[in-house]
Structure formats: structure tokens, C-alpha cells
Amino acid sequence: MRSWAVMLLVFSLVVPSLSYGADEAPLVGYSSRNSQTERKWEAKFRGMPDPANLREYMGRLSARPHHVGSPYDKDNAEWILAHFKEWGLDAHIERFDVLFPTPKVRVVEMVAPTKFSAKLEEPALAIDPTSNQKSEQLPTYNAYSIDGDVTAPLVFVNYGLPEDYEKLDRLGISVKGAIVIAKYYQSWRGVKPKVAAEHGAIGCLIYSEPKDDGYSVDNVFPQGPMRPADGVQRGSVMDFASANPGDPLTPGWGAIEGAKRLPIKEAKSITKIPVMPISYGDAQPLLAALAGPMAPEEWRGSLPIPYHVGPGPAKVHLKVEFNWDIKPVYDVIAKIPGSVAPDEWIVRGNHHDAWVNGAEDPISAQVALLEEARSLGQLVKQGWKPRRTIIYCAWDGEEPMLLGSTEWAEQHAAELQQHAAVYINTDGNDRGLLNMGGSHSLEQFINGVARDIEDPETKMTVWKREQLSRIAKAKTAEERQELRQRADLRIEALGSGTDFTAYLDHLGIATLDLGFEGEDEQGIYHSIYDDFYWYTHFSDTNFVFGRALAQTVGTSVMRLADAEVLPFDFVDFADTVDMYKKELQKLLAAKQEEVRERNQELEEGVFAATFDPRRPTVAPAKEEMPPHLNFAPLENAVELLTRSAKHYQQALAKKQMSMGDAAGGLGPEKLAAVNRELMTTERRLTNEDGLPRRSWYKHLLYAPGVYSGYGVKTVPGVREGIEQKRWAEADAEIVRVAKALEDEAGVIEAAARELE
Ligand SMILES: [Zn+2]
Predict the structure, then answer these.
(1) Helix 727-755, helix 716-723: angle, nearest 10
(2) Distance 748 CA to ligand 1 centre (A)
(3) pLDDT at 200
(4) Which end of the chain, N or C, is more open, meaning fewer C-beta atoms within 10 Å of its C-beta?
(5) How far is the CA of 259 from the centre of ligand 1 (A)?
(6) Of 397, 417, 418, which Cα lies nearest the Cα of 95?
(7) 361 C-alpha to center of ligand 1: Å?
(8) Confidence at residue 659, expressed as pLDDT on a 0 to 100 scale
(9) Is residue 534 within 8 Å of 58, Cβ to Cβ?
(10) Are the C-beta atoms of 638 and 741 separated by less than 8 Å?
(11) Helix and strand element counts for the chain (H, E)
């Protein structure tokens, strides 16, 4: 089936005016007759999204700051609602009331050895017309930092990750009682204060290092796209990965009017120590005033100073106080009812709120969502009747931490678990390659869609461009061979940091996350300079990638909504799980080897031999050897899964040749039964008890890492068990994951038999 798809693609590129003939292979999950009809509607759809509209929507939605609780946030929601309605969708606004702190007091100053007060202010630029909307802009801050007033010596901690603190240990430096200063990136920003607090720090500064998104990359704004000296990255520091995203006062249920709310002091996701983000303009004097050992080479940035670690003599006073207010968020929800299977839902979302004007984040992809909705509305007027129900969602409150999407998911959890087949997310769009992430049961599906979308720059398909780009970047011959021979490009497993989190990780709904990226550098993230002027000078300036995104996601929505049998595939899925299993075995072996080697070096006296009395270091402690774990249950489950996946693929292929014919076709009841089973396949990968110590996260294969945040941990119970040396827990998690995979194999097998 996959190679057919490739041939179809070549055919359609060479002779674009020809429509798909009756003798061509049908789309996966479609009878040949319906496949032809679908192809025609999809082709019509892809001609509709218009860059001029995308530009106009962006101009409107990013015209003023529109963070949670601001007048323009509500205004935008109402504008989106009016347009959904105008386009013929059945739309309404759902409001939730959530805890959203805004700053009251912000002080960052050096009190010794010299005095310096941080500006904490991004200047308006004459050339950038929205940068001067000062009265409506949120000041620079990190949302869900706890209130605090601390004065202490400063310590530079690189990116503030656990391994950075191991390095500090080796340097003999403790952060106990100190304020740390960490660089942005390499993890969810909320991980930095979390790890700092776990090591005894009492305050945390996070700064934008010019080596990462400033002048080391390209010219700074407004001459170029990068962060200027006073530019600051706002952002949430909520500890969502070890607790839950969404409103901290209503974990697990919808924050509707009258809902039960926890007292603030019981909210688990608020930081333990005060946090402030600062620019590199403000960071430089602080870092320059540090003494102590030189920072390890890979920690150093590109400020014109020697990077020392401290502690001190720089002593910093950090004071923050917030208005802990309940604010409304407005989700705009629009529906196109299904004609045959209205109880099977395809849900598509992108947020509309921003930290400030947010042209890139999130409006660049919100405008694609709107163009999809307008175009689908047109198709309905022309007679297109989607088989399943389509739900378009413009989320509010994503930036503080997925508030609108999480509250909606929690409020409608029971219906969603019963009806939702797939959730598709986007969040921002730039020039470049199609980034495909999601549930691996949709890997084959999204590869198929990508083969039908034209890249605006090269005119090859976005799939082909991605494949060739991966070949260019591949590091080994094996990687290149797989890229050339495997039918589908591997898609990324999803971590978090955007609105799919509640749908995939909490409810177990098969998910895709899509967007174009990679050709434009940017240093305006979460600053006042992420605006229409920046986007139309430095990103997808003619909105052709915006159109490509609307074409990609809209085609996905249609193809999922119209298929007789939901186009899930489990062969790629089983292949991926098998890969994870091997990774885990390698991870354990690597840990064992690491400990064995280190212990041997300690015995040999390697650390004593390399000791430099002028640059003293501390030898690591001797460690106990990691035990062997029993992977047998996982081995057996993966084998079962692989067998059932192949069986299902064969059964579907056989059925597809005859589907729609009177003799071989499946009756409506059979179809409904198969689809019901398919809809539960992602749910089977969840467990009601959730992951160890974070029960909101139910998915056993995908979760944001407790110490990475955005970054995914696949098979998180086992992987984090090994990483955090919880050996008994890792062993127990293997059994739990294996059990879920066996259930999964069972339901795939049942669906296959249903087809036969
Ligand atoms: Zn966003």
C-alpha cells in the first residue's frame, strides 16, 4: 500500500491536471469509489487557502497584546467566533476561570561587590509599530513563580539541568542558600527553578544567552531576526511535568464557574523558589561579577567576559510579588457535524492567546487553522458531507501552561474518551520543513498526507524534501539506508509544551502535532518583538508556508473524517515500540558500563592523578552497580504486537480491494464496530493509575520528562526509572507496559478479525 502511494505521487506530480483514475490504489481505509471522491474534494480544498487572507488575519489578531485576561484576548475570541459562524460552522465560546498571576513587584539588583539594578524592560523601537503599546504589554516575568524576597550570592549553573549540578559537585560548589543564574533552552524553563530548589537554591534567574538566540546566530532585531540586548523571554515556569498542566487550582477537572478550587498553597505546580527572566543586557554585569572556578568550556557563552561559576562575590537581591487573580479564558469551539458517524470526532486545535502580540507564537498557525475552517465551510456549501464530526478549537491560555485546552479536555473528558478519534495540534509556523510528531499509529497516515503537499520553495512534495533533508543530515550509513528504504519517515514522539498534552497524555487520544520550521532563526520568542513587523520581515513573509500548513492539516482532517475505516496503522507503531525496547536495554547497559568504569578509575587512582591543586576538583563517589532488569515481558509483548499489527494490515488491505462492493463490503454495523475498536487503541496504552508520582499522566508510552519538560520520555515509567536509579520501579513498570501492549495487541487482533 505504501509503495502505491509513492507511485500515485509521482504520477500526480508529472501530470498534475489528471485526476486519480479508477484503477489506482485507494487511500488507506477507503473503498476505491470513496477514495476517488475524497481525492477530488481534497484537491479542491487545497486550492482554497489564500496567503492574502492569512496575512490579513495575522494583522488583525496580532495588532495588540492579547494575553490571558486582556481586553484584546477576549476581542480576538469574539472575532474568531464571528468568523467561524460566518463560514457556516456551528460555533460557541466556552469560558473557564483560571489562576493567572501577573507581576506586582519585580526587583533584580546586585548589592555587592558593586551596585547594579536590572532594567527588566524591553524598549519600544521606532521602526516596529506595535512595540510601543506599553500600557497593554505584560511586563517581563515568569508566570507561576512563587512570591519571594531573597538576597544571596550568585552561582552560574549553565542550563540548570541535573547533569550541570553533577558538574558543580565535581567542582566542589554547592548552590545551597544561593541564587542561581541559568541560561534559557535545553529544557522546559520550569525545570530550571525546580532542579535549583531541589539542590537548595533560594532564587533563580534565567537569561537569554546571545550564543543561543542573540548575536552569535545572526544580526539582532530590528537589523536581523535575533534577540537584542534588552530582549527578554517571558514564559511559564509551572512545574507541569511532575504535577499537571492547566489551572493549578483544578487539577483533573474543568475550571468552570462554581467548580471546586484548591487553596493556592495546595497547588502543586507553582514553583518552590522565586524566578525572574532577564535579558543578556541585564545578565552581563551579574555574570561579570562572579569569581570562583572558570565555567567548564561548554558552559561558556559569547558575552565578552570570562565565565566564572561563583559563588559570589556577586550578591543579588531578587524580589517578586504577583497578583494571584482568577482570570477568564475563552476557548472558541466550532463544529461541522458528521453525516454518517457523528459520534466519531476529529478534533483540531491551536491557541489564540500570546505573551504579547505573538505574531509568530501562536498567530502564524492560528491563521492557518482559520483558513482551513473557512475552506471546509465552503466545501460544505458545495455539497461535501464529512462522514465524522469535525471540531475546530481556538484555545485560550496556552502560554501560562495549556490552560484553555486542558480545562476543555478535563471538562469534556468522558465525551472525548468515548468519541474522539484523533486530535491534531499546531502552534506557530515558519519557513522550512514539515515537522511531524505524534502517535505512531498515525505515522503511515501523516506520511501519506505529506506526499500530497507541495513544498512552496522547491516544488517537490514536502515529504520528498523532508526525506532528502534527513539524508543530508544523517550521520551514519545505516541511517541513510533506512531513510532511503523504509516506506515511511519516522515521526517524533511527543513531549509537551503545547496544547496536545491533555489529549494525548491524559485522555489517550491518538494525536498529531504539525508545523513548518527550520529555515528561519528567531530570537523574539515571548518578547514584545514577536509581532507583525518581525514576522513579515524575517519569517514566512509571503505566507506560502502558512498556506502549506493549512493544506497539510486541512487534508489530514478531511482524510481522517471521511475514511470508512480510520486510517490507523500498527506496523510502524510496533516497529517503533520495538525500537524503544532496544533503546531501554542499551540505556541500562550504558549505565552499568559507566558505573563499572568510574569505580575502576577510582580504584586505580585516576582522579588523584589528575588533581590540580590550583583548580581543585572533587572525585565522584563510588556507586553501586545498576542491577539487571527483566525485559522478558516487554520482549514477549512486542512480539505479540508485531504479529497482530501485520495481521491487521493484511486484513485491511484485503478488505479494501472489495470495500464498497456489494459482496465484499462491510455493512454499516461492522464498520462502526471496527472503528470503535480502533478508537480505543490509543486509550489501551494508558493506565488509570498514571505514571509513578504523577498520576495525571496516564499514557504509558509518551510523556514529557520530569527533568526535560518539552522533551519526550518514551516508555517514561521504565526510562525515568533507569535514569533516576529507581530499579525496582523500572522492573515493575516493564510489567505494566507489557500488559498494556498485550491488551493493545488483543484489540488490534479483534479489529483484524472483524474485517475478515
Ligand atoms: Zn504557542
Answers:
(1) 160
(2) 35
(3) 98
(4) C
(5) 27
(6) 397
(7) 5
(8) 67
(9) no
(10) yes
(11) 24, 16
Instruction: Cite the beta strand spans of 580-733 per DSSP E.
Output: 702-704, 712-714
| Helical ranges in 252-363 per DSSP H | 280-288
Q: Supply angle C-alpha 143, 145, 97, rounded to 5.
A: 50
Which contacts (CB < 8 Å, 24+ apart) does range 252-256 have? Answer: 252/410, 252/696, 253/410, 253/411, 254/96, 254/407, 254/408, 254/410, 254/411, 254/412, 255/96, 255/97, 255/98, 255/403, 255/407, 256/96, 256/97, 256/407, 256/411
CB 648 within 8 A of CB 752: yes
Question: What is the per-residue pLDDT across 204-237, written as a single tens digit (0 to 9) for each?
Answer: 999 999 999 999 999 999 999 999 999 999 999 9
Q: Is 208 strand, coil or helix? A: coil
Residues 424/511, Cβ–Cβ less than 8 Å: yes
Distance of alpha carbon 258 from alpha carbon 652, whole angstroms: 48
DSSP-based three-state secondary structure for 404: helix
Give the span between the Cα atoms of 186 and 188, in whole angstroms. Answer: 7
Residue of 462, 484, 459, 461 whose CA lies nearest to 471: 484
Rounded Cα–Cα distance for residues 148 and 105 (Å): 10
Query: Could you tell me the distance, in angstroms and rounded to a whole number, from the CA of residue 538 to the centre of ligand 1?
Result: 18
> Are the beta carbons of 400 and 509 closer than 8 angstroms?
no
Determine the pLDDT at residue 683: 98
Report how far ligand 1's centroid is from the alpha carbon of 399 (Å).
6
Which pLDDT score, from 0 to 100, does residue 29 have?
94
**What pLDDT is recorded for position 65?**
98
pLDDT at residue 708, as a whole number: 87
Give the span between the Cα atoms of 40 and 47, in whole angstroms. 11
Q: Is the dihedral of CA 661, 667, 671, 673 positive or negative?
A: negative
Other Cβ atoms within 10 Å of 590 Cβ, number: 12
CA nearest 73: which of 138, 13, 128, 19? Answer: 138
CA–centroid distance, residue 99 to ligand 1 (Å):
19
Residues of the chain with pLDDT below 70 are 1-24, 658-665
Give the integer Cα–Cα distance in Å for 548 and 551.
5
Please give the distance, rounded to the nearest whole angstrom, from the Cα atom of residue 426 to the centre of ligand 1: 8
Helix intervals (H) in 426-543: 443-450, 462-473, 477-485, 501, 532-538
pLDDT at 20: 45
CA 396 to each of CA 459, 506, 526, 558: distance values in angstroms, whole numbers, following the listed order:
35, 19, 16, 25
**CA–centroid distance, residue 531 to ligand 1 (Å):** 13
φ, ψ (nearest 5 deg) of residue 332: -105, 120
Please report how the helices 544-562 and 51-61 are oriented relative to each other, as an axis angle in degrees rounded to 10. Answer: 100
Locate 439 and state its grid cell.
502517535
Q: What is the predicted pLDDT for the residue at 661?
A: 52
Cα 141 to ligand 1 centroid, rounded to whole Å: 17
Pairing of strands 420-425, 432-438: unpaired
- Candidates 369, 341, 327; CA nearest to 97 is 327
Separation of 710 CA from ligand 1 center, angstroms?
Answer: 12
Distance CA 579, CA 84 (A): 43
Long-range contact set of residues 166-172: C-beta below 8 Å, sequence gap at least 24: 167/296, 167/299, 168/309, 169/618, 169/620, 170/617, 170/618, 170/620, 171/293, 171/309, 171/617, 171/618, 172/616, 172/617, 172/618
Integer Cα distance of 38 and 32 in angstroms = 10
CA of 427 to the centre of ligand 1 (A): 5
Query: Whole-prediction pTM value?
Result: 0.95
Backbone angles phi, psi at 156, to 5 degrees: -85, 125
* The three three-digit cell numbers of residue 697, written as one number: 499522566
Cell of 412: 469534556
- CA dihedral 381→383→385→389, nearest 10 degrees, is 0
Tell me what pLDDT residue 182 has.
98
Rounded CA-CA distance 2/146 in Å is 52
